[in-house]
Amino acid sequence: QVQLVESGGGLVQPGGSLRLSCAASGSDFSIDGMAWYRQAPGNQRELVARITRGGSANYADSVKGRFTISRDNAKNTVYLQMNSLKPEDTAVYYCNADAIVTTIWGNYWGQGTQVTVSS
C-alpha cells in the first residue's frame, strides 16, 4: 500500500498564493505519474494538473499560467504552487498517484486538503 498525505491548504484572500505538498510513503513502492484534483461542493472531482515521473506537466485550462505542479522524486513528493488565487479555486484538493508496490500497479488518493479563497 501507498499512503498519500497532503498539506498546505488553508484560507487565503483573492490574489494570494498557497503551496500544497503531497508526500507518498509505504514500503517497496515506486511512484509513476502524480496529479492534483479538486472538488468543490456540488461539483464533480476535476483534474487540476498532472506530472510524469520525468517532469512533463499538463494543466486544466482554468489554472494555466497561475498554478505550477512540480515533484521531488527522491522525496516521493509532489507540489502545487497556486498563485493569483480566485474564489472559484475554493475546493478540497486531492493528491493522486500511480504506483507499483512490489509487482502490482495501483492508483492512490490522499485524504484531501481544503483551500478556501475568500476576502
How is this structure best described in words?
- By secondary structure, this protein is mainly β.
- It contains no helices and eleven strands.
- It has strands at residues 2-7, 10-12, 18-26, 29-39, 46-51, 57-59, 67-72, 77-82, 91-101, 104-109, 113-117.
- The strands form two sheets. Strands 2, 4, 5, 6, 9, 10 and 11 form a seven-stranded mixed sheet that branches. The chain has a four-stranded antiparallel sheet with strand order 1-3-8-7, with no helix packed on it.
- Strand 9 (91-101) and strand 10 form a beta hairpin.
- The N and C termini lie far apart (40 Å).
Shape: elongated
State which percent range the strand residues make up: over 45%
What is the share of helical residues? under 10%
Termini gap: 40 Å
| Order of H and E elements | EEEEEEEEEEE
Task: Chart the SSEs and their pairings.
Layout: E1 2-7, E2 10-12, E3 18-26, E4 29-39, E5 46-51, E6 57-59, E7 67-72, E8 77-82, E9 91-101, E10 104-109, E11 113-117
Parallel strand pairs: 2-11
Antiparallel strand pairs: 1-3, 3-8, 4-5, 4-9, 5-6, 7-8, 9-10, 9-11
